[in-house]
Amino acid sequence: AQTVTQSQPEMSVQEAETVTLSCTYDTSESDYYLFWYKQPPSRQMILVIRQEAYKQQNATENRFSVNFQKAAKSFSLKISDSQLGDAAMYFCAYRSFYGGSQGNLIFGKGTKLSVKP
Amino acid sequence: DADVTQTPRNRITKTGKRIMLECSQTKGHDRMYWYRQDPGLGLRLIYYSFDVKDINKGEISDGYSVSRQAQAKFSLSLESAIPNQTALYFCATSDFKDRDHEQFFGPGTRLTVL
Fold first, then answer.
1. Is A54 on the interface with B (CB under 8 A)?
2. Chain-centre distance of CA B114, in angstroms?
3. Is B99 a residue whose pLDDT tops 90?
């Protein structure tokens, strides 16, 4: 079974600085999707960025980018120019390429990010 | 209006009570999910449904049941609530036709069982 590990329960960053959140996963599959979700204090789950495993190019969404290392099974999230609104819980998630029950999301335990003004 | 809605948003109940959490969606998605979030544990899947006639258990289904009344509605029931079911509950939807089956989440229901 696949697992997702976020080894940093809490992180802190100074406003305008860059921070990287770590995520590793375990799978025997070659095709899959990876996601980062943001959960601000409003508790809404917001998709930040996604990566398809067969794509070698790292995904980027404005100030958010990932470092996808398939061989190392690592999927870290980099937030550049951190803003106060980036303060939230961040969840890494895995989804198999295949359908059925394998297609369900598997979440890490989350990393709480604080942004200092 | 929100695409995925959950009612109630907050609920306090007592041990042994039956409680139903409701989820509705206007996205036209075929797949719906119920998750539970506990501090330090992330989100865990309770039940999921790929269409109206399809119900599947997730990782932590014990003590819960679901009903898919229509494509747009998916309810989660706690037949006899217990304190360790105190958690944040999320409903989510996805579209089979969507390549990566992105899941769209409701606003969550904060449930407290006393």
1. no
2. 20
3. no
